[in-house]
Design goal:
Chain lengths: 288, 288
């Protein structure tokens, strides 16, 4: 199964045997006070800076989220998408819980990249979300992230998360969205709060890959929430989740790209270590 | 399957659902010029220092290898084992390719710890090695590392490595060594030289764990040989190999313990993150 995303620049292909695709997570005001304040004033300079910095650090796709208290997403999300698309050519992942803001942002995307395929982040297995988001994904020819949670919340077993993933795919197909345009997120929760959180997630990832064959994303840094030395946890979790089937994680590229390149190398997806060594040299050069 | 090792101090248990056991690799002259020079002069001060430092860094077992050009292992290996056992109480992994030196070191170990169980590193599936090493392991009630290689060299497929592991276990049982005292090493080779090296090893680890249920060690740092930023590769490989079934890797504890603790935490082997947080606090304290 191959998912192809495209903005104004080159298309990015996501598939199990290709190198891991990095979705940059930093255009998101949650936990970033300076960005939140700028966005609240309608100032998109930091969005531009973060877009450039993340692509330079190796992000292949950029998540764009402007949701925070005091922000009118309906107006700001399309502007932020436009700013990103004006700044860099990589595909965009439109991240919002607001269907009207999503529609407006998808329209902006379609204007700037009529042949493009953005990624919509996200739909869940909840009925109202399925019915609000999937028609927009279908109308604009987008791809969509499906979170494995439904009206009952986040299932505590891997099998139940697989069942939610199955239902999202079925419902997407019912709206005319082919399954290769659905990317599943098995939901990384804080392992400090629940010691089974990561292992259930990894098991769900393996099940979705084996049973559905779909591409998988994950917000891997959530696992380390509340713990000291979060990077050690994030890097170990990324390596294990990529081994289990995650192939387009949402990450801070500057922090975790070496680990992801090392993981791809170890899984045999980087013949002669070409990508690994090239990225190492570029990091060395940029430090000089 | 549980393997219990013991020297003069507390026993160390190795089993699939217990926290990962770290075998400290640093008492080994290969690639360590200063240690090699000291050993060639019969000076064991550095062996003592390395023993203390590795235990302080979280090593649970210490590998002892004094093999290098110009060193009489027959005389020095028992001395080094004695030095380690006089310095720290953790179990010892006696690492030599010389059966006579192995016998002498096992005798020293038995004198100092009559109730002890050392680990012998290693036997292979090669007939002469099996016949030279296994009788000593049986005589001294030791445990043994079995490398998945035989007279034909290192097999290129995971299935063939499993077959070698099976044969080592059978031969060990033939000598009266119970299978729980055999630990398998699926052989990490340099991924820079062969892009399938790590994935074949990880697959072999999964097969040995699933088919034989045995405990598994691995010299994980070999995978990154010849590459820049080796620690990124080692850490990713350790996380993946522990997820696959390795539970007593041979490592530089000071470098990789945070990754191993994070991996155990993520795999649900560290309720309430107690070990992870305690180790973090100890590292912070030792830096002050």
């Amino acid at each position: 199964v191959e998912t192809t995303l495209r903005s104004t620049g080159e298309a990015v292909a996501i598939a199990p045997d290709l190198p891991t695709v990095l979705i940059g997570e930093r255009i998101n005001p949650t936990g970033r006070r300076r960005l939140a304040a700028a966005l609240a004033e309608g100032n998109l300079d930091l969005v531009r800076t973060e877009a450039e910095a993340q692509v330079a650090a190796g992000a292949d796709v950029l998540d764009v989220n402007v949701g925070a208290a005091g922000i009118d997403e309906m107006s700001l999300l399309p502007q932020a998408v436009r700013t990103v698309m004006d700044t860099v050519g990589v595909p965009v992942c439109i991240d919002t819980a607001n269907p009207q803001a999503l529609r407006a942002a998808l329209r902006t995307h379609a204007e700037l990249a009529p042949e493009g395929t953005p990624l919509v982040n996200s739909v869940t297995g909840e009925e109202p979300r399925l019915n609000a988001v999937l028609p927009l994904v279908a109308e604009f020819g987008a791809a969509v992230v499906g979170l494995t949670m439904d009206d009952g919340g986040i299932p505590s077993t891997a099998e139940e998360r697989l069942a939610v993933a199955c239902r999202i795919v079925e419902r997407a197909e019912g709206f005319g969205i082919p399954r290769h345009r659905v990317i599943i997120d098995c939901l990384a929760l804080a392992v400090g709060a629940d010691s089974a959180a990561a292992s259930v997630c990894l098991q769900a990832v393996r099940l979705v890959r084996e049973e559905l064959g779909l591409n998988l994303t994950l917000g891997a840094s959530n696992a380390s929430f509340g713990l000291p030395d979060r990077d050690a946890v994030s890097c170990a979790f990324l390596a294990m989740s990529i081994q289990s089937g995650v192939n387009c994680p949402i990450v801070d590229a500057a922090k975790v790209r070496p680990t992801i390149l090392a993981t791809d190398l170890l899984l045999g997806r980087d013949p002669f270590a070409r990508r690994y060594i090239r990225a190492y040299r570029e990091r060395q050069k940029s430090r000089q």
